[in-house]
Amino acid sequence: MFGLDPTFTALLVFCLLLAFAFEFINGFHDTANAVATVIYTNSLKPWVAVVWSGLWNATGVFAGGIAVAMGISNLLPVEILTDTNIGHNLALILSLLITAIVWNLGTWYYGIPCSSSHTLVGSILGVGLAFGMVAENKSIKYVNWEKAGDIGLSLLFSPLLGFSLAILIMYILKQVVRNKIIFKEPNTNQPPPTWIRAILILTCTGVSFSHGSNDGQKGVGLVMLILIAIVPSYFAINHTADINKYRESINESKMILSHVNLSQLNKADSFEFVKISSLMGDLEQRVALAPSFLSLNKEEQYAIRKDVILISKSAKKILESEDLNLSIRERKELKASLGSLKSVTDYAPVWVIVMIAIALGVGTMVGWKRIVKTIGEKIGKQHLTYAQGASSELVAAGTIGLSTWLGLPVSTTQVLSSGIAGSMVASKGIKNLQGKTIKSIAIAWILTLPVTVLMAGGLFLLFRAIL
Protein backbone atom coordinates (compact mmCIF):
# COMPACT_ATOMS: atom_id res chain seq x y z
CA MET A 1 0.00 0.00 0.00
CA PHE A 2 1.42 3.40 -1.09
CA GLY A 3 4.82 1.76 -1.64
CA LEU A 4 5.37 1.14 2.11
CA ASP A 5 7.01 -1.95 3.52
CA PRO A 6 4.71 -4.41 5.36
CA THR A 7 5.53 -3.01 8.81
CA PHE A 8 4.66 0.59 7.97
CA THR A 9 1.63 -0.55 5.98
CA ALA A 10 0.33 -2.36 9.06
CA LEU A 11 1.00 0.70 11.23
CA LEU A 12 -0.79 2.94 8.73
CA VAL A 13 -3.86 0.69 8.80
CA PHE A 14 -3.69 0.54 12.60
CA CYS A 15 -3.53 4.34 12.88
CA LEU A 16 -6.47 4.75 10.50
CA LEU A 17 -8.46 2.27 12.58
CA LEU A 18 -7.60 4.26 15.71
CA ALA A 19 -8.80 7.46 14.03
CA PHE A 20 -12.02 5.68 13.08
CA ALA A 21 -12.35 4.48 16.68
CA PHE A 22 -11.80 8.01 18.03
CA GLU A 23 -14.59 9.40 15.89
CA PHE A 24 -16.82 6.40 16.67
CA ILE A 25 -16.34 7.03 20.40
CA ASN A 26 -16.89 10.74 19.82
CA GLY A 27 -20.23 9.80 18.25
CA PHE A 28 -21.64 7.85 21.19
CA HIS A 29 -19.93 10.12 23.74
CA ASP A 30 -21.61 13.21 22.30
CA THR A 31 -24.91 11.70 21.14
CA ALA A 32 -26.53 12.80 24.38
CA ASN A 33 -26.00 16.41 23.40
CA ALA A 34 -28.58 16.03 20.64
CA VAL A 35 -30.96 13.33 21.81
CA ALA A 36 -31.28 13.85 25.58
CA THR A 37 -33.88 16.56 25.23
CA VAL A 38 -36.12 14.80 22.68
CA ILE A 39 -35.96 11.57 24.69
CA TYR A 40 -36.72 13.16 28.05
CA THR A 41 -39.57 15.23 26.63
CA ASN A 42 -41.02 12.13 24.87
CA SER A 43 -40.71 13.87 21.52
CA LEU A 44 -39.00 10.82 19.95
CA LYS A 45 -38.48 7.23 21.01
CA PRO A 46 -34.86 6.63 22.05
CA TRP A 47 -33.81 4.54 19.05
CA VAL A 48 -35.61 6.77 16.61
CA ALA A 49 -33.80 9.72 18.15
CA VAL A 50 -30.31 8.20 17.95
CA VAL A 51 -30.75 6.96 14.37
CA TRP A 52 -32.08 10.37 13.32
CA SER A 53 -29.20 12.08 15.12
CA GLY A 54 -26.68 9.71 13.54
CA LEU A 55 -27.90 10.50 10.03
CA TRP A 56 -27.66 14.25 10.62
CA ASN A 57 -24.25 13.93 12.27
CA ALA A 58 -23.00 12.17 9.14
CA THR A 59 -24.59 14.82 6.92
CA GLY A 60 -22.90 17.55 8.93
CA VAL A 61 -19.46 16.07 8.28
CA PHE A 62 -19.96 16.55 4.52
CA ALA A 63 -21.27 20.10 4.90
CA GLY A 64 -18.77 21.38 7.46
CA GLY A 65 -15.78 21.99 5.22
CA ILE A 66 -12.28 21.59 6.67
CA ALA A 67 -11.57 24.92 8.41
CA VAL A 68 -11.82 23.38 11.90
CA ALA A 69 -9.73 20.38 10.79
CA MET A 70 -6.96 22.71 9.65
CA GLY A 71 -7.28 24.77 12.83
CA ILE A 72 -6.62 21.65 14.89
CA SER A 73 -3.62 20.54 12.82
CA ASN A 74 -2.15 24.06 12.84
CA LEU A 75 -1.68 23.79 16.59
CA LEU A 76 1.36 21.71 15.72
CA PRO A 77 4.54 23.52 14.67
CA VAL A 78 5.67 23.38 11.04
CA GLU A 79 8.76 21.39 12.06
CA ILE A 80 6.56 18.53 13.28
CA LEU A 81 4.18 18.71 10.33
CA THR A 82 7.07 18.50 7.87
CA ASP A 83 9.28 15.96 9.66
CA THR A 84 10.34 13.39 7.07
CA ASN A 85 11.16 10.69 9.67
CA ILE A 86 8.23 8.24 9.55
CA GLY A 87 9.14 6.82 12.97
CA HIS A 88 8.84 10.27 14.57
CA ASN A 89 5.55 10.85 12.77
CA LEU A 90 4.15 7.55 13.99
CA ALA A 91 5.11 8.51 17.54
CA LEU A 92 3.15 11.73 17.05
CA ILE A 93 0.04 10.03 15.68
CA LEU A 94 -0.08 7.14 18.14
CA SER A 95 0.35 9.37 21.20
CA LEU A 96 -2.44 11.70 20.02
CA LEU A 97 -4.91 8.94 19.23
CA ILE A 98 -4.29 6.73 22.25
CA THR A 99 -4.56 9.67 24.66
CA ALA A 100 -7.78 10.96 23.10
CA ILE A 101 -9.40 7.51 23.03
CA VAL A 102 -8.43 6.56 26.59
CA TRP A 103 -9.70 9.82 28.11
CA ASN A 104 -12.92 9.81 26.11
CA LEU A 105 -13.67 6.18 27.02
CA GLY A 106 -12.87 6.81 30.68
CA THR A 107 -15.20 9.78 31.03
CA TRP A 108 -17.93 7.98 29.05
CA TYR A 109 -17.67 4.93 31.33
CA TYR A 110 -18.35 7.09 34.38
CA GLY A 111 -21.12 8.95 32.57
CA ILE A 112 -19.32 12.31 32.71
CA PRO A 113 -19.98 14.70 29.81
CA CYS A 114 -16.50 15.62 28.59
CA SER A 115 -15.20 17.56 25.61
CA SER A 116 -13.59 15.60 22.76
CA SER A 117 -12.27 18.93 21.49
CA HIS A 118 -10.64 19.69 24.82
CA THR A 119 -9.13 16.21 24.83
CA LEU A 120 -7.70 16.51 21.33
CA VAL A 121 -6.29 20.00 21.91
CA GLY A 122 -4.60 18.85 25.12
CA SER A 123 -3.09 15.87 23.33
CA ILE A 124 -1.71 18.07 20.55
CA LEU A 125 -0.23 20.55 23.04
CA GLY A 126 1.39 17.67 24.93
CA VAL A 127 3.04 16.38 21.77
CA GLY A 128 4.26 19.87 20.85
CA LEU A 129 5.79 20.43 24.28
CA ALA A 130 7.43 16.99 24.28
CA PHE A 131 8.81 17.57 20.78
CA GLY A 132 10.41 20.78 22.03
CA MET A 133 12.25 18.78 24.73
CA VAL A 134 13.99 16.51 22.21
CA ALA A 135 14.34 18.93 19.28
CA GLU A 136 17.84 20.04 18.32
CA ASN A 137 16.85 23.67 17.80
CA LYS A 138 15.68 24.95 21.18
CA SER A 139 15.06 28.50 19.94
CA ILE A 140 11.90 27.51 18.05
CA LYS A 141 8.48 27.51 19.69
CA TYR A 142 7.13 24.02 19.15
CA VAL A 143 3.59 24.92 20.18
CA ASN A 144 1.54 27.38 18.17
CA TRP A 145 0.54 29.38 21.24
CA GLU A 146 -1.34 31.97 19.20
CA LYS A 147 -3.63 29.33 17.71
CA ALA A 148 -3.81 27.54 21.06
CA GLY A 149 -4.97 30.81 22.62
CA ASP A 150 -7.75 31.21 20.05
CA ILE A 151 -8.95 27.66 20.60
CA GLY A 152 -8.56 27.97 24.36
CA LEU A 153 -10.76 31.07 24.43
CA SER A 154 -13.31 29.26 22.28
CA LEU A 155 -13.40 26.30 24.67
CA LEU A 156 -13.44 28.56 27.73
CA PHE A 157 -16.16 31.01 26.74
CA SER A 158 -18.51 28.70 24.85
CA PRO A 159 -19.86 27.06 28.07
CA LEU A 160 -20.30 30.49 29.66
CA LEU A 161 -22.08 31.65 26.53
CA GLY A 162 -24.30 28.55 26.54
CA PHE A 163 -25.21 29.06 30.20
CA SER A 164 -26.01 32.76 29.78
CA LEU A 165 -27.94 32.47 26.53
CA ALA A 166 -30.09 29.63 27.88
CA ILE A 167 -31.13 31.82 30.81
CA LEU A 168 -31.89 34.68 28.41
CA ILE A 169 -33.97 32.50 26.07
CA MET A 170 -35.91 31.03 28.99
CA TYR A 171 -36.68 34.56 30.20
CA ILE A 172 -37.86 35.60 26.73
CA LEU A 173 -40.05 32.49 26.43
CA LYS A 174 -41.69 33.23 29.77
CA GLN A 175 -42.51 36.75 28.63
CA VAL A 176 -43.72 35.87 25.13
CA VAL A 177 -45.30 32.39 25.21
CA ARG A 178 -48.82 32.37 26.62
CA ASN A 179 -49.26 28.60 26.63
CA LYS A 180 -47.49 27.66 29.86
CA ILE A 181 -47.51 23.95 29.07
CA ILE A 182 -43.97 24.28 27.71
CA PHE A 183 -42.74 25.09 31.23
CA LYS A 184 -44.28 21.94 32.75
CA GLU A 185 -42.80 18.49 33.09
CA PRO A 186 -43.83 16.14 30.25
CA ASN A 187 -46.51 13.57 30.91
CA THR A 188 -45.05 10.08 31.22
CA ASN A 189 -44.85 8.29 27.84
CA GLN A 190 -47.01 10.89 26.14
CA PRO A 191 -45.60 13.03 23.31
CA PRO A 192 -45.83 16.81 23.67
CA PRO A 193 -48.20 18.99 21.65
CA THR A 194 -47.37 18.89 17.94
CA TRP A 195 -45.89 22.40 17.74
CA ILE A 196 -43.60 21.80 20.71
CA ARG A 197 -42.59 18.42 19.37
CA ALA A 198 -41.70 19.93 16.00
CA ILE A 199 -39.50 22.57 17.66
CA LEU A 200 -37.69 19.98 19.79
CA ILE A 201 -37.07 17.67 16.83
CA LEU A 202 -35.83 20.65 14.83
CA THR A 203 -33.39 21.67 17.56
CA CYS A 204 -32.22 18.06 17.91
CA THR A 205 -31.57 18.02 14.18
CA GLY A 206 -29.69 21.32 14.40
CA VAL A 207 -27.41 20.13 17.20
CA SER A 208 -26.74 16.83 15.39
CA PHE A 209 -25.90 18.59 12.13
CA SER A 210 -23.71 21.26 13.76
CA HIS A 211 -21.97 18.61 15.88
CA GLY A 212 -21.13 16.65 12.74
CA SER A 213 -19.91 19.75 10.94
CA ASN A 214 -17.62 20.73 13.84
CA ASP A 215 -16.54 17.51 15.55
CA GLY A 216 -16.47 15.57 12.30
CA GLN A 217 -13.80 17.91 11.04
CA LYS A 218 -11.57 16.95 13.97
CA GLY A 219 -11.66 13.36 12.75
CA VAL A 220 -10.90 14.51 9.21
CA GLY A 221 -7.96 16.52 10.53
CA LEU A 222 -6.64 13.49 12.43
CA VAL A 223 -6.81 11.24 9.38
CA MET A 224 -5.03 13.85 7.27
CA LEU A 225 -2.29 14.11 9.91
CA ILE A 226 -1.87 10.33 9.70
CA LEU A 227 -1.70 10.31 5.91
CA ILE A 228 0.67 13.26 5.69
CA ALA A 229 2.91 11.81 8.40
CA ILE A 230 3.19 8.29 6.99
CA VAL A 231 2.70 8.67 3.22
CA PRO A 232 3.66 12.30 2.51
CA SER A 233 4.40 11.75 -1.17
CA TYR A 234 0.70 11.02 -1.68
CA PHE A 235 -0.96 13.44 0.76
CA ALA A 236 1.41 16.28 1.79
CA ILE A 237 -0.23 18.45 -0.88
CA ASN A 238 -3.36 18.21 -3.01
CA HIS A 239 -2.30 16.57 -6.28
CA THR A 240 -5.61 17.45 -7.95
CA ALA A 241 -5.07 21.22 -7.59
CA ASP A 242 -4.53 23.10 -10.86
CA ILE A 243 -0.86 24.10 -10.89
CA ASN A 244 -1.43 26.75 -13.59
CA LYS A 245 -4.05 28.55 -11.50
CA TYR A 246 -1.71 28.18 -8.55
CA ARG A 247 1.04 30.02 -10.43
CA GLU A 248 -1.50 32.75 -11.23
CA SER A 249 -2.28 33.13 -7.52
CA ILE A 250 1.41 33.45 -6.71
CA ASN A 251 1.86 36.16 -9.38
CA GLU A 252 -1.22 38.03 -8.17
CA SER A 253 0.04 37.95 -4.57
CA LYS A 254 3.49 39.17 -5.62
CA MET A 255 2.00 42.00 -7.66
CA ILE A 256 -0.07 43.28 -4.71
CA LEU A 257 2.89 42.90 -2.34
CA SER A 258 4.98 45.04 -4.71
CA HIS A 259 2.72 48.00 -3.83
CA VAL A 260 3.76 47.86 -0.18
CA ASN A 261 6.10 50.60 0.99
CA LEU A 262 8.54 48.73 3.21
CA SER A 263 9.82 51.93 4.83
CA GLN A 264 6.38 52.56 6.41
CA LEU A 265 6.32 49.23 8.22
CA ASN A 266 7.53 48.76 11.76
CA LYS A 267 10.37 46.37 12.50
CA ALA A 268 8.17 43.33 13.24
CA ASP A 269 6.00 43.85 10.16
CA SER A 270 9.07 44.42 7.99
CA PHE A 271 10.42 41.07 9.14
CA GLU A 272 7.17 39.31 8.24
CA PHE A 273 7.00 41.09 4.87
CA VAL A 274 10.54 40.06 3.95
CA LYS A 275 9.77 36.50 5.06
CA ILE A 276 6.63 36.36 2.87
CA SER A 277 8.51 37.77 -0.12
CA SER A 278 11.31 35.24 0.30
CA LEU A 279 8.94 32.30 0.74
CA MET A 280 6.85 33.44 -2.21
CA GLY A 281 9.94 33.45 -4.41
CA ASP A 282 10.86 29.99 -3.18
CA LEU A 283 7.33 28.72 -3.82
CA GLU A 284 7.28 30.26 -7.30
CA GLN A 285 10.56 28.56 -8.17
CA ARG A 286 9.34 25.15 -7.01
CA VAL A 287 6.22 25.16 -9.20
CA ALA A 288 7.66 27.12 -12.15
CA LEU A 289 8.44 24.20 -14.43
CA ALA A 290 6.35 21.40 -12.95
CA PRO A 291 3.54 20.13 -15.23
CA SER A 292 1.48 19.14 -12.16
CA PHE A 293 1.78 18.78 -8.41
CA LEU A 294 1.86 15.01 -8.83
CA SER A 295 5.12 15.28 -10.78
CA LEU A 296 6.97 16.73 -7.78
CA ASN A 297 9.06 14.45 -5.58
CA LYS A 298 8.42 13.98 -1.85
CA GLU A 299 11.00 16.57 -0.77
CA GLU A 300 9.52 19.23 -3.09
CA GLN A 301 6.00 18.51 -1.87
CA TYR A 302 7.07 18.80 1.76
CA ALA A 303 8.91 22.05 0.96
CA ILE A 304 5.80 23.51 -0.73
CA ARG A 305 3.68 22.53 2.26
CA LYS A 306 6.12 24.18 4.64
CA ASP A 307 6.30 27.36 2.51
CA VAL A 308 2.51 27.68 2.36
CA ILE A 309 2.07 27.17 6.11
CA LEU A 310 4.73 29.78 6.91
CA ILE A 311 3.32 32.25 4.36
CA SER A 312 -0.12 31.84 5.92
CA LYS A 313 1.20 32.52 9.43
CA SER A 314 3.14 35.64 8.36
CA ALA A 315 0.29 36.90 6.17
CA LYS A 316 -2.14 36.85 9.08
CA LYS A 317 0.18 39.05 11.11
CA ILE A 318 0.94 41.57 8.39
CA LEU A 319 -2.67 41.88 7.18
CA GLU A 320 -3.68 42.90 10.71
CA SER A 321 -1.05 45.65 10.77
CA GLU A 322 -2.25 49.25 10.69
CA ASP A 323 1.05 50.24 9.03
CA LEU A 324 0.39 48.19 5.92
CA ASN A 325 -0.10 50.89 3.27
CA LEU A 326 -2.65 49.06 1.13
CA SER A 327 -6.21 50.08 0.39
CA ILE A 328 -9.12 48.07 1.77
CA ARG A 329 -9.66 46.57 -1.69
CA GLU A 330 -6.00 45.60 -2.01
CA ARG A 331 -6.01 44.05 1.45
CA LYS A 332 -9.02 41.93 0.52
CA GLU A 333 -7.44 40.90 -2.78
CA LEU A 334 -4.16 40.02 -1.06
CA LYS A 335 -5.98 38.00 1.59
CA ALA A 336 -7.92 36.14 -1.11
CA SER A 337 -4.87 35.42 -3.28
CA LEU A 338 -2.76 34.30 -0.33
CA GLY A 339 -5.70 32.23 0.89
CA SER A 340 -5.92 30.47 -2.46
CA LEU A 341 -2.36 29.25 -1.93
CA LYS A 342 -3.70 27.14 0.95
CA SER A 343 -5.86 25.13 -1.45
CA VAL A 344 -2.89 22.86 -1.94
CA THR A 345 -2.48 22.13 1.79
CA ASP A 346 -5.97 22.60 3.28
CA TYR A 347 -7.86 19.73 1.71
CA ALA A 348 -9.19 16.24 2.38
CA PRO A 349 -9.99 13.45 -0.11
CA VAL A 350 -13.66 12.47 -0.33
CA TRP A 351 -12.97 8.98 1.02
CA VAL A 352 -11.58 10.50 4.25
CA ILE A 353 -14.76 12.52 4.76
CA VAL A 354 -16.91 9.46 4.01
CA MET A 355 -14.90 7.39 6.50
CA ILE A 356 -15.36 9.94 9.29
CA ALA A 357 -19.05 10.45 8.45
CA ILE A 358 -19.65 6.72 8.81
CA ALA A 359 -17.66 6.51 12.06
CA LEU A 360 -19.47 9.45 13.63
CA GLY A 361 -22.90 8.44 12.34
CA VAL A 362 -22.66 4.81 13.46
CA GLY A 363 -21.02 5.79 16.75
CA THR A 364 -23.95 8.09 17.44
CA MET A 365 -26.25 5.05 17.45
CA VAL A 366 -24.19 3.11 20.02
CA GLY A 367 -23.46 3.51 23.72
CA TRP A 368 -25.49 6.67 24.19
CA LYS A 369 -27.39 5.84 27.41
CA ARG A 370 -24.73 6.75 30.00
CA ILE A 371 -24.30 10.39 29.02
CA VAL A 372 -27.99 10.83 28.13
CA LYS A 373 -28.92 9.83 31.68
CA THR A 374 -26.48 12.35 33.14
CA ILE A 375 -27.72 15.21 30.94
CA GLY A 376 -31.40 14.33 31.24
CA GLU A 377 -31.60 13.49 34.93
CA LYS A 378 -28.53 14.57 36.88
CA ILE A 379 -27.75 18.18 35.95
CA GLY A 380 -30.95 19.64 37.33
CA LYS A 381 -33.17 18.53 40.21
CA GLN A 382 -36.35 18.72 38.11
CA HIS A 383 -37.39 16.75 35.07
CA LEU A 384 -36.40 18.44 31.82
CA THR A 385 -39.28 20.59 30.54
CA TYR A 386 -40.10 21.33 26.91
CA ALA A 387 -38.85 24.91 27.20
CA GLN A 388 -35.60 23.84 28.84
CA GLY A 389 -34.93 21.25 26.16
CA ALA A 390 -35.64 23.61 23.29
CA SER A 391 -33.70 26.58 24.71
CA SER A 392 -30.56 24.57 25.56
CA GLU A 393 -30.45 22.86 22.17
CA LEU A 394 -31.15 26.10 20.33
CA VAL A 395 -28.18 27.66 22.11
CA ALA A 396 -25.98 24.63 21.37
CA ALA A 397 -26.86 24.51 17.66
CA GLY A 398 -26.29 28.25 17.23
CA THR A 399 -23.00 28.36 19.15
CA ILE A 400 -21.54 25.33 17.39
CA GLY A 401 -22.68 26.54 13.98
CA LEU A 402 -21.03 29.93 14.55
CA SER A 403 -17.81 28.28 15.73
CA THR A 404 -17.71 26.07 12.64
CA TRP A 405 -18.15 29.15 10.43
CA LEU A 406 -15.25 30.83 12.26
CA GLY A 407 -13.12 27.69 11.90
CA LEU A 408 -12.84 27.15 15.67
CA PRO A 409 -13.36 23.84 17.46
CA VAL A 410 -15.91 24.04 20.24
CA SER A 411 -17.19 21.50 22.74
CA THR A 412 -20.72 20.36 21.99
CA THR A 413 -20.81 18.64 25.38
CA GLN A 414 -19.80 21.73 27.33
CA VAL A 415 -22.14 24.04 25.44
CA LEU A 416 -25.23 21.85 25.83
CA SER A 417 -24.51 20.84 29.42
CA SER A 418 -24.05 24.48 30.39
CA GLY A 419 -27.19 25.36 28.41
CA ILE A 420 -29.26 22.84 30.36
CA ALA A 421 -27.73 24.11 33.60
CA GLY A 422 -28.68 27.66 32.58
CA SER A 423 -32.25 26.61 31.78
CA MET A 424 -32.52 24.92 35.20
CA VAL A 425 -31.25 28.05 36.95
CA ALA A 426 -33.71 30.18 34.94
CA SER A 427 -36.58 28.03 36.23
CA LYS A 428 -35.91 27.78 39.95
CA GLY A 429 -32.57 29.40 40.65
CA ILE A 430 -29.13 27.99 41.43
CA LYS A 431 -30.62 25.58 43.97
CA ASN A 432 -32.17 23.70 41.06
CA LEU A 433 -28.77 22.26 40.07
CA GLN A 434 -27.40 18.96 41.36
CA GLY A 435 -24.12 19.95 42.93
CA LYS A 436 -22.50 16.51 42.68
CA THR A 437 -22.98 16.28 38.91
CA ILE A 438 -21.91 19.88 38.28
CA LYS A 439 -18.80 19.24 40.39
CA SER A 440 -17.94 16.07 38.40
CA ILE A 441 -18.36 17.89 35.08
CA ALA A 442 -16.27 20.83 36.32
CA ILE A 443 -13.48 18.56 37.59
CA ALA A 444 -13.39 16.69 34.27
CA TRP A 445 -13.31 20.02 32.44
CA ILE A 446 -10.41 21.26 34.58
CA LEU A 447 -8.42 18.02 34.50
CA THR A 448 -8.82 17.24 30.80
CA LEU A 449 -6.14 19.63 29.61
CA PRO A 450 -3.33 18.82 32.09
CA VAL A 451 -4.00 15.06 32.02
CA THR A 452 -4.03 14.83 28.23
CA VAL A 453 -0.98 17.11 27.90
CA LEU A 454 1.04 14.90 30.27
CA MET A 455 -0.24 11.63 28.83
CA ALA A 456 0.27 12.56 25.18
CA GLY A 457 3.67 14.09 25.87
CA GLY A 458 4.83 11.02 27.81
CA LEU A 459 3.58 8.61 25.14
CA PHE A 460 5.26 10.67 22.42
CA LEU A 461 8.64 10.48 24.15
CA LEU A 462 8.16 6.73 24.72
CA PHE A 463 7.11 5.94 21.16
CA ARG A 464 9.82 8.19 19.70
CA ALA A 465 12.45 6.21 21.61
CA ILE A 466 11.01 2.90 20.35
CA LEU A 467 10.13 3.67 16.72
User: In terms of structural class, how would the helical and strand content be classed?
Assistant: mainly alpha
Biggest sheet statistics: none
Q: Percent of residues in beta strands? A: under 5%
Quick check: average pLDDT? 82
The number of helices is: 18
What is the total number of structural domains? 2
How many β strands by DSSP?
A: 0
Assembly type of the chains comes to single chain
Radius of gyration: 24 Å
The unreliable regions are: none
Q: What would the principal axes of the Cα set say about the shape?
A: globular
Q: From N to C, what is the helix and strand string?
A: HHHHHHHHHHHHHHHHHH
The separation of the N and C termini measures 20 Å
State the helicity in percent bands. over 70%
In short:
Helix content is 74%, strand content 0%. It has 467 residues and is an all-alpha fold. It folds into two domains: 6-233 and 348-466, no CATH class; 238-344.
Description of the structure:
The chain has 467 residues and is mainly α. The protein has two domains: 6-233 and 348-466, no CATH class; 238-344. 74% of the residues lie in helices and 0% in strands. The chain is built from 18 helices and no strands. The chain has helices at 6-40, 46-63, 67-73, 78-81, 86-109, 116-134, 145-176, 194-230, 232-235, 243-257, 267-287, 298-319, 328-341, 350-364, 369-378, 386-406, 412-428, 435-466. It is globular. The protein starts with 5 loop residues before the first helix and ends with a helix. The mean pLDDT is 82.
